[in-house]
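From the thread on structure requests for the teaching lab: each student submitted one protein with a one-line request. Submission from student K.M.:

"Model Peptidase from Bifidobacterium choerinum, tokens only."
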Amino acid sequence: MRQSADGIIGMEEGKAAGGGTGAPSRRRLLLASSAAGLLPLMRRWLGLRRGAVVGFVPNASFAEHYGFANRMTAPWWRLRGLDVRVVDLDGRRSRICSLLRGCDLLYLCGGNSFHLMRCLRAAGVAPLIRELVDSGVPYVGESAGAVVAAPDIDYIAPMDARREPATTLRARRRPAAPTPGLGLTDVHVVPHVGGRMLGAAADEILHMHAGDAGYLPLRNDEALLAEGGRMRRLATGSAAARLL
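Reply posted by the TA:
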């Protein structure tokens, strides 16, 4: 993997930014550490227009004390002219699927990656999300939303607590089982590199996977655009994101 002067990251042979070998070329992913400064990139690179229907999946934010800040993105974007529809994965599956199918763009917000993936599996919508992205619906992932786009999410354990369901006193505590992601891309985004809150955890993850080109560091004021088998690093230009 290499990065050119214009920010385009070339993938190794046999890997694709938008999915595994032979992955549909219509996949468009925008992966970021923070929502701050992300909207202009969504408009420029994903063609997001005023009035577009955004399926906002908030569940990752419910597992973290800072989650309220992640969820505030939804009302802010409504004020900016988007039709933001909150898709709570704890609802009825038929309603969840109906909401997702009616979206012009899918947005999975930040929070706890393991909690988000549990919710996606419990709702049974991971195959539907892959189907929609394969059909050309853009996928935008913020922090946890970016992490779950990978083939697996176990690598994020130094940053996100697993918070497995409690066991009884009589039940043996089992080792954490491997946690597959959505598999929308072959790369593993490592968010919050250099950040004040989670930068140390990001450094630990990168150290653990040093030399593996499949792990991409991402600062809070950066985003990665995966399209057509290529990945481009973009700057959000957000001063607020640089303070996180």
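TA comment: Residues 10-16 have pLDDT under 50 and may be disordered. The radius of gyration is 17 Å.
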